Amino acid sequence: MKHYFITRMPNEPGALHRAAEIVRKYNGNISRIHYDYRIDPHTTFFEISVDDSLCLENIRKELQKIGYLQETLEPVGFLRFNVYLPNKPGALFDFLNYTTSANANIAFLDFDEKGKHPDRLTVCLTIERSNVIDRLLNALKSRYRIEILEYDPRGRQLDKTVFYLEFAQKIRELLGSAEDRFLLHLLNDINHIVQELSNLNKEPTQVFNSIISTGKRLRNSTGKNFYSDVQVVTISKNIKLFCFQLPCGGNIFVLSSDKKSLMIDTGFGIYHDDVLNMFQYFGLGDITRLDRILLTHADADHAGAAGMFSCPSFMHKATSDAIDIANRAYGSRIETSVLEEVYTKLINLFSHFSPPEKREIFPDQVLGLRSIFPIIYKFNFSGIEIEVLESLGGHIFGQVYFLLRKEGIIFTGDSLINFDSLTEDKKEFANLATILMTSVNVDSHTASKEREALLGLIRDIDKEQVSRGKRCIVCGGHGAISVLGEEGRLVVPDFLSIDRYNRG
User: Fold this and answer.
1) What pLDDT, on a 0 to 100 scale, did the predictor assign at position 418?
2) Which of 9, 44, 207, 485 allows an S-S link to 15, with CB 3.0 to 4.6 Å?
3) Which residues contact residue 34 at a Cβ distance below 8 angstroms, ignoring those fewer than 6 apart?
4) Based on C-alpha coordinates, what's the Rg of the chain?
């Protein structure tokens, strides 16, 4: 069995050796270890393999006994102040008795008897039990003259010596509540990212800041701050196609007829209430008319609200598996990538991912080909035939495309997107994903091959539509509904206006 430990140990020679000795004593094998002084000089992450649960418990108890085992994540306080000490032997020693008894970690000291203030010592402390700060200050005031320069009992101005604890507290604030055990497990995953990032020459703090930014952007774009860019296409007298570009993440498409509607992708789960209000505004509020949901792929910004609707969700078998495993790299050559797996966990967590409960899996039989893409399913919606095309797995294994050949409409998932139509905010949010992962595509070479094949298919369909006085309409996973312009670029045509919906 494998278990992880997060330890906080003194930054002194032999400390790590002592912990390793305890692991060896009970026949534990250290399968992963990470320590980086630049991020946190006191925190070491261990993954330990043991054959016996009793040995595992003994390791835990001995690490706990010597004060190494970290099992809680109290808010860390920060205190910077001047203290005036008497100019006599032992003055600093006496002062340090107070900080040591408060279990305060000294982050900074500055004193020079030849300076302008020969009796003044400037001190910066971090204290893991923030309620101790008041008691420490009262004790110091009874003995010394002190000047408070900065007092932060909730640890919002921490230095890098407590980086991981600061990061955990920020995540706790984003989630509203989170148990220490959950946060410790999450920190172990986050730490694992650091090792992979080191091999990619990426700065860990940039990635961690991007994680927090992702969570904040999602939370801050709901409710009164929610908006959507909207396009409506009239397909026939009784059928309309709606495209809703949400503030963050992927699009939602709705095909609506007189009697029923069909949704393609659902957006993030965190937007569910906002989306229902938006549907109501556009006359799509009767959810009982929603016949089914079609999912292009498993990413949270496309499938994240599927479980919040009562109708069945249709998807590729690999999409269902990737959702259950919670790893967007499932089935690809980078399935073992820590970055991909942890990114999936984090984005699912921040976006309130709700996996679909009623699932219908597309069959794996091949009915024919469209360009290089197998046709694996066909069905009818209000007189419209919809073909399901299987991708080659460039963006993510199990992605599918939906083709309305006669109507000249294709839904390309994240394989083909009009990036020029994205607002600056949406571009910035999309860039966060590239910071958290090596690439948004699990196989970049195959993704390029898919794009070229899709463009060729669209050109062929466009020729057919132009002969009827129409155009082939491309519905990408992000950005505006577009048509193919010059030099193979997607452009928004004049006949497809974009309107803004604001919930606030």
Assistant:
1) 95
2) 9
3) 44, 45, 191, 192, 194, 195
4) 28
User: What is the predicted pLDDT for the residue at 189?
Assistant: 76
Residue 451 half-sphere exposure, CB side, CA atoms within 13 Å? 19
Q: Do 267 and 246 meet the contact criterion of CB atoms below 8 Å apart? A: yes
What is the Cα–Cα distance from 218 to 433, expressed in whole angstroms? 13
> What sign does the dihedral 449-452-454-460 (CA atoms) show?
negative
| Cα gap 66→20, rounded to integer Å | 13
DSSP string, 271-319: GHHHHHHHHHHTT---GGGEEEEE-S---HHHHTTGGGSSS-EEE-HHH
Which band of pLDDT confidence, cut at 50, 70 and 90, is reported for residue 415?
Answer: very high
Domains of the chain: 2-65 (3.30.2130.10), 77-152 (3.30.70.260), 166-220 (no CATH), 223-502 (3.60.15.10)
Q: Specify the residue for token string 């057919």.
A: 464
Contact 157, 199 (CB under 8 A): no
What's the rounded Cα separation, in Å, for the pair 210 and 203?
Answer: 11
CA distance 132 to 129: 6
Statement: the pTM of the whole predicted model exceeds 0.85:
no
Please, which residues bridge with residue 109 across strands? 123
Q: CA–CA separation, 275 vs 282, rounded Å?
A: 11
pLDDT digits (tens, 9 = 90+) for 47-96: 888 888 889 889 989 998 888 887 766 656 677 888 998 888 888 899 99
- Give per-residue pLDDT as tens, 432-459: 777 766 678 999 999 999 999 999 999 9
